[in-house]
Design brief:
Length: about 350
């Protein structure tokens, strides 16, 4: 493992996120210090810092994790302190007990760690019931401030990455259909066939990236005050992705069938020219669908704004040596057409 990869992220967090975390931490420190005087409000500051997450929904999840972990850890620490007094080894015992309790209740790793850390800090700094209650109250102050700051100061909306990744998927899918259409009637070398297959396979990770970006966008709108402005956009993107996903599968399947059953005489089949034309029409309609949904990062020139797949393709039976490939291409093309023209 390279050391710098373990300590450095591939890209920086937004500067706004850093500012929000700092603002929440400062506000929690000041408010908790005023409401619960006598101790440095470390618990409040840590809670606020951890709760400010990339989305409001994640902030709520982190708030629950932090709150439950602190309460459980404080209860364990106070109980052990009352039972066993305050020998130094009780801190180690509290950590072990906290980890076992978290394991028994199937707590998440974050919650389990928080239980142990809270128990350790309470025993190290003061294990009286009054101190414990004050630390719980202090933590809740930090949690609330973290949520409020993240919700009110430009809550993040991850719609742009979803639009970008879906647009890139649509553009590459259309290009893959065009490349297969260009290859079908012409003789191909083994190198060009492998290149065609490789480019088609790249559609799957691009589809996965678009899926992940849309899911992140949907998650960023949960509990977000700005959700009403962007919800419809993501609904349309999700619907478009659901239309494109089967086409990705069919395009890869058609390319695979061509790769597996290719011979130099395939271009002589009359059906191949007709299939190639239908693939170009399908590529046109994919670009059109992406542009209508306003997700194309760079609009491409279209020959027409009217869908090109207007009627099913009818061909003559192919020769006996090519009927498997032609049949496979026709079936995948039929499925692509059904997605693009909304046929059941």
């Amino acid at each position: 493992m390279r050391i710098h990869a373990a300590i450095r992220a591939s890209k920086r967090s937004p500067l706004l996120q850093v500012v929000k975390s700092a603002a929440a931490t400062i506000a929690a420190w000041m408010l908790a210090g005023w409401v619960v005087p006598g101790q440095l409000p470390v618990f409040a500051a840590i809670a606020a810092l951890l709760v400010v997450q990339p989305s409001v929904n994640q902030s709520l999840s982190k708030a629950l994790e932090r709150s439950i972990g602190v309460i459980a850890g404080v209860v364990i620490a106070v109980a052990l302190g009352l039972l066993l007094g305050s020998p130094s080894w009780i801190v180690l015992l509290a950590i072990v007990v906290a980890m076992l309790v978290a394991w028994a209740f199937r707590a998440t790793p974050g919650t389990g760690n928080q239980v142990a850390i809270s128990a350790m800090l309470v025993l190290a700094l003061g294990s009286t019931p009054d101190y414990a209650i004050a630390r719980i109250f202090e933590t809740l102050i930090g949690v609330v401030i973290g949520i409020v700051v993240n919700a009110l100061i430009v809550p993040p909306v991850l719609v742009a990455p979803a639009r970008r990744d879906l647009g890139l998927l649509g553009s590459e899918l259309a290009s893959s259909l065009d490349r297969l259409a260009d290859a079908l009637p012409e003789p191909q070398t083994p190198a060009t066939l492998h290149q065609l297959m490789l480019e088609a396979r790249l559609l799957r990770p691009m589809k996965d990236a678009a899926e992940a970006s849309i899911a992140a966008g949907e998650e960023s709108l949960t509990l977000n005050p700005r959700r009403s402005t962007h919800r419809e956009e993501l609904v349309e993107m999700r619907a478009l992705l659901e239309r494109l996903t089967p086409i990705v599968t069919q395009t890869i399947g058609m390319t695979r069938a061509y790769f597996d059953h290719y011979d130099d005489s395939i271009g002589e089949e009359p059906a191949v020219t007709a299939i190639a034309e239908q693939l170009r029409r399908a590529g046109h309609d994919v670009r059109l669908a992406v542009q209508i949904a306003a997700v194309s990062p760079e609009p491409e020139a279209l020959t027409s704004a009217i869908p090109a797949l207007t009627a099913p393709l009818v061909i003559r039976p192919p020769s006996s040596t090519h009927w498997i490939l032609i049949g496979s291409l026709m079936e995948d093309l039929r499925r692509i057409r059904a997605e693009l023209v909304d046929e059941e």
